[in-house]
Amino acid sequence: MSKKHRHDDARKDKPSKWDAGESRGAEIGGLPPAVSECHNNEGHVDQNPDNHKRMYPLYVELVKWQRHLIEADERVVILIEGRDAAGKDGMIKTFVKHLSPRETRVVALGKPSDREQTCWYFQRYVPHLPASHEMVIFNRSWYNRAGVERVMGFCTEEQYEEFMQTVPLFEQMLVRSGIKLFKYYLDISKSEQKKRLKDRRENPLKQWKVSPVDEKSQALWDSYSRARNAMFSRTHHALAPWIVVRADDKRAARENLIKDFLSRVSYEGKNEALARPDPHVVFLYHEAYLANEMIAP
């Protein structure tokens, strides 16, 4: 047998992340490391001990869940949607902070190419769907067509209607194929968006986030609200419901999205007490939440 075949067979025996030589211990859990030893995902020391103590148990639960994902050969897709400056990047960084990068992928597609614009709309997303024991997080997703493309006129009325009618069918097909699909919408107020966009423009470390679309976000606020509401009402379905996260408070949003996710998945050794999100922060979409402004007007 060739070296290549021996290597391939060995990889089939055990998930790569949990090989005995790579595992950090048979049990996952225990006390958090000292704050002085805790680093964020950019290699910098986390200077907030309260934040570290609060989030550490949730990170442990996510790692336990990922072990189950790998061992059970599951496939998971998470969509993170929201207005400009809703906190999508920070949310995703927090979620994946301690997960295995080998089984975790974050997808943020740019503007479609000339060729992609002639293809079936969902075609450029399909190659990024997960294989067995993988999780894929889409930082924005196929719902661009229901939001920014709709508001900014980047698609025709016919293309928009085609999308709205077919996206539930596309998602049902994914779920019935075995993919577990979670759709999160980070919801912020107009005043909070204004503050964050100002910070984005003035902060030299956030210049990479600035885009021409930002300038129109506030002026087109009502148009984006109408597009969001139509998206909720027409694409919220039993197999892939919309989960709304009130995101003016970034810390509460990140903590409660993780708690909500944990409440929706099964895995060995689950700490049920931690998987209890605040229902005032994260909740399933319902049209009543538009009327009472639980969802920002």
From TrEMBL:
Keywords: Kinase, Transferase
Entries under InterPro entries matching the protein: P-loop_NTPase (IPR027417), Polyphosphate_phosphotransfera (IPR016898), PPK2-related (IPR022488), PPK2_PA0141 (IPR022486)
GO molecular function: polyphosphate kinase activity
Composition bias, Basic and acidic residues: 7-25, 39-50
Domain (Polyphosphate kinase-2-related): residue spans on this chain: 50-271
Enzyme category, top tier: transferase
GO terms of biological process kind: phosphorus metabolic process
Entry-linked Pfam families: PPK2
The protein's Enzyme Commission number: 2.7.4.-
Chain intervals for the UniProt region annotation (Disordered): 1-50
PANTHER family the record matches: ADP-POLYPHOSPHATE PHOSPHOTRANSFERASE, POLYPHOSPHATE:AMP PHOSPHOTRANSFERASE-RELATED
Function text: Uses inorganic polyphosphate (polyP) as a donor to convert GDP to GTP or ADP to ATP.
Quaternary structure, from the entry: Homotetramer.
Recorded family membership: Belongs to the polyphosphate kinase 2 (PPK2) family. Class I subfamily.
Name by which UniProt lists this protein: ADP/GDP-polyphosphate phosphotransferase
Gene encoding the protein: ppk
